[in-house]
Design brief:
By secondary structure, this protein is mainly alpha-helical. Helices cover 70% and strands 0% of the residues. Helix 2 runs antiparallel to helix 3. The relative contact order is 0.06.
Length: 105
């Protein structure tokens, strides 16, 4: 049915139809390319994040910055930054994790 409609188009209508199809295909190609680039970028960010998490664990286990650099490929500057940004501070005041319970009558 759709093919019969298109076959009945005038020369100007066919040209407009083909132009609109070209635009639609171009837009689809742009979207596909953007999606593919986004996936690749996300994958690279995920790998980088994983390497940094491993480096932090290695530092927490007492490995030297040089050893961490050797096995992760990170620079000493990146490792120092990770070490400085991921230090755990102990609290000085006591902390209660539970709410006080009400006494039952």
């Amino acid at each position: 049915f759709e093919v019969a409609k298109i076959a009945a188009f005038t020369k100007d209508e066919k040209m407009a139809y083909e132009t609109s199809l070209k635009h639609l295909r171009d837009l689809n190609n742009v979207i596909d390319t953007a999606r593919r680039e986004g996936v690749e970028e996300g994958r690279a960010e995920g790998i980088e994040s994983g390497i940094k998490q491993v480096a932090i664990k290695m530092l927490n286990d007492g490995l030297s910055s040089e050893m961490v650099a050797k096995y992760t490929g990170l620079t000493l500057t990146q490792i120092e930054s990770l070490a400085n940004n991921n230090r755990v501070c102990e609290t000085t005041a006591g902390y209660k994790s539970e709410k006080p319970r009400k006494k039952r009558k």
